[in-house]
Each structure stands twice: as C-alpha cells, then as structure tokens.
Recover the amino acids of this structure.
C-alpha cells in the first residue's frame, strides 16, 4: 500500500525558507491519478490545506499561501516537496503530506513539526 | 472559499452513547464531504467519504449522511477508542477546506 514520510528541518528562522520533502513508497509520483498534497496544523488548531501537485504536473495552491509557495515532484527519487518562503511564527505547524486518489486524503504521513523561531 | 462550520465544537459523552456531529457548508457541495478522526499526536484518518461511504476497515458504528450544505456524522454506540477530534472536509473545489473540528471527550 501507499506510504508517505515527511522529512526536513524542525526549526526555521523567521524570513527564511521552509523546505520539506515527502518520500513515497508503494506508488509512483509520476503515474496514476494521484494528487500529492501538503496539509498543515498549527499546534492546538485545525487543519489547513496548503496545496497539491498532480502526477501530470498540474498544481493548485491555497490562495492564502500562493505567493510564497512552491510544490514540486522529483520522479527520480519518488518524492514531492514543499518550499515556503519568508516564513513567520504563523507558519509554525505540524506539516503533513498526504495523497488523494479520489476526493479524500488517504494515506497521510506521520507529520513533522516545524517551528519558526530565531 | 467554501467555509465549513462544525457543531458542536466540543462534546462530552459516555461509552454507549449515540453521538451526532454536524457540518454545514457555506454553499452547496453536493456530496463532496469527507469525515476524519484525529487522535493526539497522530495524523487524521478518513472515516467517511462522499458523505456516506464507510472507508474500508472503519467500524460500522460510524455513519454519515447529508447532501448540499448540511451533513452529519453519527457514532451509534460510542466506544472508548472513539474519544478524539473529528473534522469534516469539502472536496467540491479548491481551496479544499476543513471544519474547525469537534473534540469528543469522555463525560
């Protein structure tokens, strides 16, 4: 079955770039009708959809983050990634990668906590 | 953006109780509504998709209903492992949005 694992720094300084990678096993990021997705959850708060990239390279971003966000696929490593520039404390959250074959998210990665602090 | 509003925000109940959580969309989303369960420190897990379809492996005490703007998640007989936070999510269009969550606690 499909499994996802996030990786990346747990601490990022304000104004810098947050970079995370999601490694996929059990499926190819370059085939199938999957949407490879990032979702975040600030501590103690609800879930926010960040954006996704389709196997066809079409992508869609949350308008609230669009100016700072890039989601890419690396087919050679079977990974997809997130880059969020000019971060502030408001970007501190648990970041999840997930996939959507139909309209729901399943499976999810375990999540990785990113703290923005100097 | 489509706003998703859950009620109540928190709920106290006992094992064996029947529990209902409501989710309302700010515009019609047909049946593009999914429900998730999240336990502390864990990723959300899908329970119901397309408003009323039970995800494989999810106990049959969970059920979903609704269409258009109003949806419900029902737990027919609450079990100890069901104390968690529940989220609805619309997949009708992007940006995909979630409800604010309903925290289900033990009475």
């Amino acid at each position: 079955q499909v499994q996802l694992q996030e990786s990346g720094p747990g601490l990022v300084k304000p104004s810098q770039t947050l970079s995370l990678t999601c490694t996929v096993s059990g499926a190819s990021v370059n085939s199938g009708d999957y949407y490879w997705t990032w979702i975040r959850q600030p501590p103690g708060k609800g879930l926010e959809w960040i954006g996704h990239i389709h196997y066809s390279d079409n992508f869609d971003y949350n308008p609230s983050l669009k100016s700072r966000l890039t989601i890419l696929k690396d087919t050679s490593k079977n990974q997809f990634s997130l880059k969020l520039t000019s971060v502030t404390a408001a970007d501190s959250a648990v970041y999840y990668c997930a996939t959507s074959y139909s309209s729901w998210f399943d499976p999810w990665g375990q999540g990785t906590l990113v703290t923005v602090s100097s | 953006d489509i706003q998703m509003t859950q009620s109540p925000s928190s709920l106290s109940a006992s094992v064996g109780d029947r529990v209902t959580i409501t989710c309302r969309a700010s515009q019609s989303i047909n049946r593009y509504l999914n429900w998730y369960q999240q336990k502390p420190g864990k990723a959300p897990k899908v329970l119901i998709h397309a408003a009323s379809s039970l995800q494989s492996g999810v106990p049959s005490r969970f059920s979903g209903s609704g269409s258009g703007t109003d949806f419900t998640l029902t737990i027919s007989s609450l079990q100890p492992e069901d104390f968690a936070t529940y989220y609805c999510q619309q997949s009708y269009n992007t940006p995909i949005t979630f409800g604010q969550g309903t925290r289900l606690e033990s009475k």
